[in-house]
Design a protein that fits this description.
Elements (H helix, E strand, L loop, with lengths): L7 H8 L5 H12 L9 H8 L3 H10 L5 H15 L3 H6 L10 H19 L2 H12 L5 E4 L5 H14 L3 E3 L7 H5 L7 E5 L6 H12 L3 E7 L11 E5 L11 H17 L1 H18 L7
Parallel strand pairs: 1-2, 1-3, 3-4, 4-5
Amino acid sequence: MPGTSKLVKQRIQDETEHLTRSERQLASILLQDYPMGGLQSITKLAAAAGVSTPTVIRMARKLGFDGFPALQDALREEVAAQIKKPISKRDGWVVDEGAEHPLMRFAQVVWANMRHTLERTDTALFDRAAAILADTTRPLYVVGGRITRSNADYLYNHMQIIRPNVTMLGNSANVWPQYLLDMDQSSVLVIFDIRRYEAHLEKLAQIASERGVTVILFTDQWGSPIGRVANLTFNGLVEAPSSWDSTIALQLIVEALIAEVQGARWEESKERIEELEAMFSSTRLFRSPT
């Protein structure tokens, strides 16, 4: 079964305060073009960072690797994991079919994903995101990919009830420029993008960022390329014993944010919910309990 060992960038982030000034320069170069930046030759990487090759080797060892080649092996494994097709994802799982019921096997993996995601999530980052989402002076736009569209829909449906000025981008990327016309420095764009990362979402994020939009990204443990322009990024573990990735860990963060935003503006949210319920009652869209 695939493990939950830390990615190279997570090791770098964990060790940052223990790195020397030269090693921090190197770390910055590695993270700027992650993971490809670390796959160039040791001499090219050292030159790009303005450090010596011994510094590269020393930092690799600080991160827990035997040397630079071992660090590069880890990066290559990450790249291979990012581009897995659905069939190969399932083939990567080795489970004891007779150990327990499939439901419990799957649940154990999901629970582990949630636990490790929470361990790696910065609560200060969560608080910043919640404050931004609760600010009704900032128009909120939401979009997801082919698989993550349902996560985006869920966030949109609840945010639209809690606060005004929330827009879900249409399914067709052809009409996204029309939404971009209204986006400016006061706007917030929430994007969901997990492997195999979608180029049109990356382009949307780039243009939005150029317009001064605050970009909040929900992605997997490897990190969508959108992370290069995102202002806030949430990484969730997504591997599961299936041909498809599980977004439950990301959904945990989404639902917690919804609860926090609603709590932060409860009086206003309560009025909107009561007004909405009155509309439902008058239109008889839902059956009343008897």
